[in-house]
Amino acid sequence: MQKGIRHGDLLTPFLFVLVVEGLTSLVKEASNSYLFRGIKVGLKGELVNILQYVDDTIFVGEASVENVRTLKIILQGFELASGLKVNFYKSCLGAIGVGRETLISFAEILHCKLSNILLVYLGIPIGANPRRSKTW
After folding, report:
1. What residues make up the domain containing 26?
2. Of the spans 9-18, 58-67, 110-119, which averages the highest pLDDT?
3. Is residue 134 in some structural domain?
4. Lowest mean pLDDT, pick from 6-10, 33-37, 94-98, 121-125
5. Would you say residue 90 lies in a domain?
6. DSSP letters for the chain
7. In terms of DSSP bridges, do strands 92-93 and 113-114 run parallel, antiparallel, or are they unpaired?
8. N or C, fewer C-beta in 10 Å, the chain?
9. pTM of whole model > 0.85?
10. Are 66 and 41 in contact (CB under 8 A)?
11. Residues of the signal sequence (predicted)?
């Protein structure tokens, strides 16, 4: 127990998933308390506020200062609780339909870079028009 887990240990991915599940719970709790507002998608209006795949996390929400500040607090609390470090300088912020000045102010709050929203994530173009053949 004193030596910890080494890089490449078979337990590492499982433990990471357990710890990151705590982050999902924090975001859902903030959403249930109306501190973080996600977006509703689909015909049934399903609420989406966090997407995770392997070691990538995408937070989805309304473009507001309150949401950005809440997200910063959630991530700082996650760091304290888990002992994992969120590298804000490697993190990116992007939005659709939000002015550049607003995005810059949000990025300054989070201390992160701006992302070109027309990006490819897991081979899928995000932010591009799916009806255009050049997208695919």
Report:
1. 10-126
2. 58-67
3. no
4. 121-125
5. yes
6. -TT-PPTT-TTHHHHHHHHHHHHHHHHHHHHHTTSS--EEETTTTEEE-EEEETTEEEE-----HHHHHHHHHHHHHHHHHH-----TTT-EE--SS--HHHHHHHHHHHT-EE--SSEEETTEEESS-TTSGGG-
7. parallel
8. N
9. no
10. no
11. 1-22
Q: Which residues make Cβ contacts (< 8 Å) with residue 100, sequence separation at least 6? A: none
Q: What is the total residue count of the chain?
A: 136
- Domain membership of residue 1 (yes or no) is no
User: Is residue 90 within 8 Å of residue 75, measured between CB atoms?
Assistant: no
What total of structural domains would you count in the chain? 1
Reported as a single tens digit per residue, the pLDDT across 39-63 is 999 999 999 999 988 778 899 999 9
**Residue whose pair of structure tokens reads 């249930």 in the numeric block:** 32
